[in-house]
Design goal:
The protein is an alpha/beta fold. The chain has 10 helices and 10 strands. The longest helix has 16 residues. The protein starts with a strand and ends with a strand. Bound molecules: adenosine monophosphate.
């Protein structure tokens, strides 16, 4: 597997791939790779003739008090995993390659970026949209793969692609979980054993709400109470938000009738974890809701 460090080299490799009519798939990551990332790579491999993964801990998406400095960096084992997964090249630039001195241009997706994760993490989505647009420009992929674990992030990227007429198809992949339900995340490495045990509360809360939906509950406040109460029963968990939103706008929903998300953000000590449940009306009977954890 090729490891590409510079933008000029990456652009040259993408130019060659396009000249050969390759279908290029891009999987953007911040490294510290786990099965969640690898599931995106497997999906890309099944749909593309060339698969590229980027490894870049993007400084502009971290707030000044966030974990940029201590974010897990496991480059050697990431390279092993990408090689074993059959990735053609890894794009792993230095921060100064992406943001040289006097860098001045940022992408803001208004509206949706201001809510929920955007409110909790000011500037986060501006950093995400900027780096993803730059990666799209550098790699010019046909398809780009993102996890539903970061539901608001992928919605913002879809909006950016639509608004800026980007020639890339955004593919959203399901959430990969541990056997006890915890969604895989590079940040799970921060949890001590007690916090790790308590972290299953996110999945438990969403699963309880999922049961309630299956029994006919449609009222957002009722579902929100289920989420809140389940998190509140776990002393190591501190709820940041539990919201029921429209999947298109990320505006709060009153009753679930359209495609929606139940979203959770929870602190375990200093570690902040997010998770969600996707709810879609059944195509055959829109009163039936299909839920995916
Ligand atoms: P990150 O390295 O955290 O920026 O994540 C890179 C990509 O992997 C993003 O599109 C994430 O949504 C996705 N991802 C992270 N965790 C998971 C997971 N547990 N299941 C599926 N996709 C994930």
């Amino acid at each position: 597997m090729e490891i590409i460090r510079t933008i000029s080299w990456m652009k040259e490799a993408s130019r060659e791939a396009r000249a050969e009519n390759q279908i290029v798939g891009l999987v953007p990551t911040m490294g510290a790779l786990h099965e969640g990332h690898l599931s995106l790579i497997r999906r890309a491999k099944s749909e593309c003739s060339k698969v590229l993964a980027s490894i870049f801990v993007n400084p502009t998406q971290f707030g000044p008090k966030e974990d940029f400095a201590k974010y897990p960096r496991t480059f050697e084992s990431d390279v092993e995993k990408l090689t074993a997964a059959g990735v053609d090249a890894a794009f792993a630039p230095e921060a100064a390659e992406i943001y040289p001195a006097n860098y001045q241009t940022y992408v803001n997706v208004d509206g949706i970026s201001e809510r929920l994760e955007g409110r909790a993490r000011p500037g986060h989505f501006r950093g995400v949209a900027t780096v993803v647009l730059k990666l799209f420009q550098i790699v010019r992929p046909t398809f780009a793969y993102f996890g539903r674990k970061d539901a608001q992030q992928v919605r913002i990227i879809q909006q950016m692609a639509r608004d800026l007429n980007l020639d890339v198809e955004i593919v959203v992949c399901p959430i990969v979980r541990e056997s006890d339900g915890l969604a895989l995340s590079s940040r799970n490495a921060y949890l001590n054993p007690q916090e790790r045990a308590a972290a299953t509360a996110l999945h438990r809360a969403l699963a309880k709400a999922q049961d309630a939906i299956a029994r006919g509950t449609r009222d957002a406040l009722e579902l929100q109470s289920i989420l809140r109460e389940t998190i509140a029963r776990e002393p190591l968990c501190a709820l940041d938000y539990a919201e029921i939103v429209d999947a298109e706008t990320f505006e709060p929903a009153v009753r679930i009738a359209r495609t929606s998300y139940l979203l959770l953000a929870v602190f375990l000590g200093k570690t902040r974890l997010i998770d969600n449940l996707l709810i879609t009306p059944s195509p055959s009977n829109p009163d039936d809701l299909i839920t995916s954890l």
